[in-house]
Amino acid sequence: MSEPEITKIEVGDGAAIPRPEDKGLVSAWWIALFGAIALLVFLPWYKPDPYLNILRFVPDGILVTFEVTVFSISLAIVIGLLTGLGRLSRNRFINLIASLYVEVVRGIPLLVQLFYIYYALGRFVRVPDLVAAVIAMAFCYGAYMGEVFRAGIKSIDSGQTEASLSLGFNHRQTMAYVILPQAWRTILPPVGNEFIALLKDTSLVSILAVADILRRGREYASESFNYFETYTMIALIYLLITLVLSKLISIMEHRLSHYERR
Amino acid sequence: MINKVLAALLLLAALCSPVAAETTIVFATDATWPPMEFVNDQKQVVGYSIDFMTAAGKEAGFKPVFKNTAWDGIFAGLASKKYDAIVSSVSITEERKKAMDFSEPYYTVRQALIVGKASTAKSLADLKGQKVGGQIGTTGYFAIKAVAGVEAKSYDEVGLAMEDLNVGRIAAVVCDDPVAANYAIDKYKDNLKIASVIETGEAENYGVAVNKGSAETLALIDKGIKAVKAKGLDKELKKKWIGQ
Questions:
Q1: Residue B120 belongs to domain spanning
Q2: Mean pLDDT, range B234-239, rounded to an integer
């Protein structure tokens, strides 16, 4: 049985997603997971003040981090799909708009974009802080996602489009019924990667005074002066979340790709 | 050749060595707190505290060097000895005294509540269920948190909180009164106003913070502060920077 031909898109800014065939990474994942859990349990037990107090202080921040991540990624996927299709569009105007968006967004650091949308545009559009944070994150990640979608769609052999068109489908039907359902499987791994990268980048919204995990930690540290203890716990919480999520995403990928391996 | 190198090294050593009678004290300051300490349009760190410590240095014989440092982490930097002292409108509180030592008080402040022009709120209690902002780790922010029912929102810089109040994302800001005046009477005078001065019980004083056990540095700073006060220089500085 020969290996199926699947194009893998490598986007290197997410957490390492363990693949079942990669034994080294899998064991590193287990060690990191157990290390993080062990420290998160041991430290509060060993020294409740301040470690347990820190754990009591941050949970609403974890919720906010998840809120920002989930809303941002959902919006970014929609923007990314439209951008990806726009970049492949034969309509020159749409193509130009989509390309311009990608160029502009990728050329500006996320931190500057956050400040820009929150404080610079804040004078004209008055949106609540969480909404501003989500818009900024989605606006940035939508551009990166657009490139993922574009690459995913292009990875489908052009013979499929030709066959579909010759069978009487129009371009939109070809995209919706033939290309996208297949491209989705190529697109999913990098989207999972972007999801984890985005979750980590949401720590930047703490500069907008959004009360996420990092800001709660900073608030605790600024009041107690327990900088070492606080940031140790914050780092462990982020690590635990990204490790668990990377595993979930790898399981999901595994499921989705199962009939390709038959 | 070797002699030349040696001479150069000796000269360098002479320049670097603290033979000069003046000791240098490195002060960390978060220059985002006008008019006490801020960056002017020539990118220099200026303000009441800066002038005060420069005058104190002249009186007590030390050379102050000011290092602009972000507020969030300014105390961590002191603990890890990145600088000798903090002069950054640090109010002397019991909690802070546990972690560091303080000089003589050099300025007395109160916490002011700033609201939008149209607001009728007079105290924090009037703002139950609303968001009120302050700079992270400041006595102003702690004052907000102390009132049950008010949602405290912490900012990296007080200026960002003022801007959020200006565009209406939060209902009020609490900070030291000279800073409040700077924003509400000067920069944002069309949109903001000082609603009231919050009574926190005891008087709140700015002090210079040093690490516990830095007795020599502290003695020098205290000597300078006392001399400046004795000469009445602080009143001149008040007139210059705060205008009263």
A1: 111-198
A2: 92
